[in-house]
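Report of the visiting student (M.T.), summer placement. My assignment was to run the structure pipeline on a short list of targets and document each run. The first record concerns Dipeptidase.
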Amino acid sequence: MNTPIFDMHCDLLSYLSNVAGANAFNKDDIGCAIPWLLDGGVRTQVTAIYTDVNEGSMKLASKQADIFVELLKQDSRELALCDSIFLNNWEKEPTLALLASIENAAGLGNENAEWKSVTEQLESILEKVNRLAYISLTHHTENRFGGGNYTKGIGLKKDGQKLLDYLSGRKIPIDLSHTSDLLAEGILTHLEKERLNVPVIASHSNFRVIWDHPRNLTDEFTQEIIHRKGILGVNFLRAFLDTENPERLFDHILHGFEIGAGEQICFGADFFYTKNFGDPSRIPFYFPLAENASKYQSILTTLSQNLNQDQLERLAYKNALHFYQNLWN
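After the run finished, the structure tokens were exported:
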């Protein structure tokens, strides 16, 4: 099996911006190194601009946007920009295309930034990267926009509302993968109340009914994404699958099909640089069956026991591809 892949999330840009001597082609450092992506048949990879909540978040986000631009210049034979032209010719394109996203809107505005600076930062990043696959308002902690997935009881804040208002009609999806439940609820409520045109996705989250973790989606939020015709990227991290059972990856994927997400479910593997991570309980971060981007084809082969060819292709690339083709045309 050699099915093309469209993956919704990796942290290659964060690795390149923060690790001394980082190299996008170093397979020993990160599971989404360019050679791993090529080995796995990845045709499009979303690369997140990730920042923590601190005073330097805007500067670091701008740096990662610059790295995204420079990365595309390194080897034009293998790497391309995922724009509307590429998407419309996707199945004929032989190269790997990269697409940027914002993981944590702290990169758009630190806690002290004036609102004008927030919008100027967004426009500056867009000018560099051409398109954004999505914006996550938060990561695991609280920021000026709302509550992250480890901050219970903190929902959508006023600046979060303002950012959603600003995004309406801009064809930039909002991502629920790192929201608190209260923030996810607040986002959906505000979109409905104000009748905003903002697509809703979950770029790299699994299903809480399969593995009870605050990073995973409740079936209620999953159904909202299905109803809104968004997409749902399955995460490969052991902590969000099941810390003991590697086969749980397949349970999450099959659950998505069982609850009606057959036209939404896709991959959001979430490969990142793990060598400086402070929590030893997370090691190993990935099970061997999903430890780097070369594993997509073997994962699809295993799933072929339960899914037909059309379902496998929807998971691998069609759902994500069709979502962005429809959004950006």
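DSSP finds twelve helices and nine strands in the chain. The radius of gyration is 18 Å. I thank the supervising group for their guidance throughout the placement.
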